[in-house]
Amino acid sequence: MKIVIIGSGNVAYHLARAFTENKIPVSQIFGRNKSNLQLISEEVHLPYSHTQLEDADLYLICVSDGSISDVSKLIKKDNCLVAHTSGSLPKEILTGNYRKASFYPLQTFSKSVDLNYAEIPFFIEAENKKDVELLQDLAESISEKVMVSTYEKRKYIHLTAVFACNFVNHLFARAKEISDSQEIPFDYFLPLIKETTDKIKILEPKFAQTGPAVRNDERVLKAHEDLIKDEEQLKIYKVMNESIKEMYEL
Amino acid sequence: MKIVIIGSGNVAYHLARAFTENKIPVSQIFGRNKSNLQLISEEVHLPYSHTQLEDADLYLICVSDGSISDVSKLIKKDNCLVAHTSGSLPKEILTGNYRKASFYPLQTFSKSVDLNYAEIPFFIEAENKKDVELLQDLAESISEKVMVSTYEKRKYIHLTAVFACNFVNHLFARAKEISDSQEIPFDYFLPLIKETTDKIKILEPKFAQTGPAVRNDERVLKAHEDLIKDEEQLKIYKVMNESIKEMYEL
């Protein structure tokens, strides 16, 4: 089976690496950004092109959501399988006469961070059983956690990830604003953060909740509100505490 | 120096353990809850009492914020040092003629979770230099990260911790509600969560932000809002995205 990866961003880079590390041959990495492609090609030892899309059995489109439809039109072939890697779009966004699929790795990708690919969950969807199996096999060659998933389900996966990852990172960013303002090294909070995320491996997050809101400690809540000078920080502070109280019926 | 720990909760337990593991003798653990004290005493091999507070040079009060003042009145001695372990109260909450101090470990404590005490930051405050040094030495016998801190600063430390830990845990709890509703194992999100928290060790959280809001992806934001059925989840979703947009001036 000939595989072509389309895209030159972080998802393309990490998928290319994951495949080659697991001895899955990739025929080409194709994209617009020649210098990015060159870098990936050198590191992962793959042929690349930014002009000539190679013939393949499977195209994996690893570009931003807004570009998937346009990029998918570059594939003029009918007898092939095309999958995008977006968590938030249906496979029908792909525009062509080929068989359509979704191949969604649930991970946040940065070029500078090494990943243990075996741990990354993959969610698969395709038009027919054979294609599902093909993509499942492919994902299982990288990862130990592969699940078939409808588009509907994938939307909730993405939403869960936004809460558990994007918003969590933003809380770190807001927390650092506060500690920076007092010249307290943000490093000092890393053990606490590690403990917070370690704890949910053995305890349901609902049962691991600590802090003033779950203790219904109005004195501390009020004192904190007085301490916060930034409007966005204050909005977050209030909404999160209200939500904690609602969850524990306080 | 004779040390007595007052309290029988998670902070008392972990401080008792941290001291004995580091060969700092503790004379007594004192509290109201006899069965808790018994459990700690058996595990950590310390004498305990729920009736007779022993004479000591240093009392460490490890009880909930609301009880510190009352508990501190049990110490009738003048010539001793008394420290509480709260992040959110001044040392003046202590009521007695002894020297007052704060000995604040920045960590979330659960009895069931083992901790690397060497990594836990301690923030110290006392009335005079000698007591500051005494508490600093004591904290440094446990931890590598000890900092002198005023009450004012401690309030911001606590506030930062609420954002980076309590609220983060609550996001995990809300995220799990969403994944549970679709029968997606919450386990699948643990690598993503680990990656999110690993990333901030090498990258400032502000520069590690991903997700629809920082991409200003109105389509996904709107689709997610339509997907969310729970009122509290929706409030969090909106406030966090607004705050992300504000931070990146989108």
TrEMBL record, chains A, B:
Gene3D superfamilies tied to this protein: NAD(P)-binding Rossmann-like Domain, ProC-like, C-terminal domain
Pfam families, A to Z: DUF2520
Cleavable signal peptide: none
SUPFAM superfamilies from the UniProt entry: 6-phosphogluconate dehydrogenase C-terminal domain-like, NAD(P)-binding Rossmann-fold domains
DUF2520 domain segment(s): 120-243
Entry superkingdom: Bacteria
Protein name: DUF2520 domain-containing protein
